[in-house]
Automatic annotation (TrEMBL):
InterPro entries with a match to the protein in the record: BchJ, NO_sig/Golgi_transp_ligand-bd, V4R
Region: Disordered, residue numbers: 1-22
Protein name: Divinyl protochlorophyllide a 8-vinyl-reductase
Record SMART domains: V4R
Record organism: Rhodothalassium salexigens DSM 2132
Biological classification of the source: Bacteria, Pseudomonadati, Pseudomonadota, Alphaproteobacteria, Rhodothalassiales
GO biological process: bacteriochlorophyll biosynthetic process; photosynthesis
Domain 4-vinyl reductase 4VR: 150-205
Pfam families hit by this protein: V4R (PF02830)
């Protein structure tokens, strides 16, 4: 259900492809929130400044952002923080993006039905919804999804790839845990950032992580 009063996000159609691929503004907004919560305002300003995006701290983006901007920001997090803290901040940004999607982009009745269905069925429906809105997290990357045991999401040429993609993993885990089963676990098993042809996210529904 489109909501014109909210910042652009999962329900909006792709546009402005001619001037470069775009991703949802939450890739920027929730990164600012997560960094401020975990690393403080000073570190957040340094990281946004390094990415050339200091203006977004004063005035958060209200619509889609260039994927190159989101990519610079996600890389700057890893360039400026020790690896474990970069992973934590990136994952927190992903969880907050999942929270935003749950609060604003998925109608309550749909969420209610998904929670009532057996996990295998709700996983299938959620996977279709994620595929339909893939451009919001994948930009110019090509996403494919397979529901099953386990569910698998792949993004080829992922423009927002960081080491093992904690942001994407956390977005998917938040959605699957809330709408399919609290036992859902997402594991990155391949990553464009280390030269693999795709980022692969394996989603198990039984509480055990994929190896
Ligand atoms: Zn990746």
């Amino acid at each position: 259900m489109p909501d014109t009063h909210m910042p652009a996000g999962i329900d909006q159609e792709p546009f402005s492809r001619a001037d470069g691929a775009r991703v949802g503004p939450n890739a920027v907004i929730q990164t600012a929130e997560a960094l401020e919560a975990l690393e403080g305002e000073g570190a957040t300003a340094v990281i946004f400044g390094a990415a050339g995006l200091a203006h977004y701290l004063a005035s958060p983006p209200a619509s889609m952002v260039a994927e190159s901007e989101a990519a610079r920001l996600h890389h700057a997090v890893f360039a400026h923080l020790p690896p474990d803290r970069a992973r934590a901040a990136s994952a927190e940004a992903g969880r907050r993006t999942g929270d935003y999607i749950l609060a604003h982009r998925l109608p309550g009745p749909v969420q209610h039905i998904l929670k009532l269905l057996p996990p295998k069925l709700s996983a299938k429906i959620l996977m279709k919804a994620i595929e339909k809105h893939a451009w919001t997290f994948a930009g110019s990357g090509q996403m494919t999804g397979r529901a099953g045991a386990p569910c698998v999401i792949e993004i080829a040429n992922n423009p927002l790839a960081t080491p093992d993609c904690p942001w994407h993993s956390a977005v998917f885990e938040r959605l699957f845990q809330e709408l399919v089963t609290p036992r859902a676990r997402v594991t990155s098993t391949a990553c464009c950032h280390r030269g693999d042809p795709v980022c692969r996210f394996v989603i198990t529904l039984d509480g055990r992580r994929a190896s």
